[in-house]
Amino acid sequence: MKHINIPIFIPHEGCPNDCIFCNQRKISGHVRTPSEAEMVSTIEEHLQTVNPDDHCEIAFFGGSFTGLPEQLQKHFLKIVHRYVIEGRVKGIRLSTRPDYINTAELNLLKQYSVKVIELGIQSLDEEVLKKSLRNYSPQTAIDACRMIKDNGFSLGVQTMIGLPKDTLQKSIDTAKRLIELEPEMVRIYPTLVIKDTELAQQYFNNRYKPLTLDEAVLWCSLLVPMYEEANIQVLRIGLQDTVDLQKGNEVIAGPVHPAFGDLVYSKILLNHITNKLDSMDIRVKKVTIHVAPSQVSLVVGQHRRNINFLKEKYGFSHIKVKADQKSQKSVLFEFLD
Ligand code: SF4
After folding, report:
1. Architecture of the CATH domain 265-336
2. Which CATH number fits domain 3-257: 3.40.50.300, 3.20.20.70, 3.40.50.2300, 3.40.50.1000?
3. pLDDT higher than 80, residue 177
4. Where are the alpha helices (DSSP H) in the chain?
5. How far is the CA of 23 from the centre of ligand 1 (A)?
6. pLDDT, average across residues 301-305
7. Residue 245 — very low, low, confident or very high, per pLDDT cuts 50/70/90?
8. What would the mean pLDDT of 274-297 be, rounded to a whole number?
9. Ligand 1 centre from 127 Cα, in Å?
10. Which atom of ligand 1 lies closest to the CA of 21?
């Protein structure tokens, strides 16, 4: 079954927060909240391309939905709720901040068939949250996750890597603690320096250094398997939806790449292959690596990066990567003299 989100972008007008990586407040005057007619037209347009078997949800993206005034939340929810009642979509999903979750709010969302709540956690490290001006503690985020799960919603967690004072170990610790909270899905965003943000100021004053592309790929290649092994779906690795959706956004610096997810999965496969090869006594110069057909280009890597790495590390003169239906879940080696 294909999962389809119909995205409705709600800029967070009047957001009282000042997270250092975000320019929502600065651009909110330029990004208009969609009218009812525009929302309906977006939904109808998407529904024309949806198959009856698809699992289709309407998704409010952008700011912190539950931070909007209650009347405005109800207004938006009423518009989309009728699609759930008519059976044309399966549910509603939205994203918000951990400190905007409470019992009254969750009761309201239940009334309107909200099924999934994604929390912008970013990090569970006290210092990282503080330096990023998120204005909530790790415990607030943990409590919000628990409340969402206890109230029967599906939980998504959004995390960022490379925020000020973040380290690989801190991001691994955050992932470990989040996995214990059993979210159904996760998004991992490398921190980018966006124009008109406090982070951009810090970057220009040499007070903040973003992760390099290689560092971000390495961190993600260690985090993604942690979530996947815990059966938590990795919905997205890379550019934030808000950065995608707002045309005026400009990335000044940071590990941005159009195929960031592919780089990460390519690195994960390379890690897997080197782990296996490291445990073997290799005395030959030629190897054929059998992998699932969908993974051939990932194993080879961009510009044959992985192949070149393996040749150098293990002294292979020839490496062939072969598509093999039997290798769906594993990587098999055939060594030749
Ligand atoms: S990240 Fe969200 S909460 Fe923080 S300033 Fe931007 S819109 Fe407000």
Report:
1. 3-Layer(aba) Sandwich (3.40)
2. 3.20.20.70
3. yes
4. 24-27, 36-47, 70-85, 103-111, 126-131, 138-150, 168-180, 198-204, 213-229, 241-245, 260-278, 296-300, 305-314
5. 8
6. 95
7. very low
8. 92
9. 18
10. 1
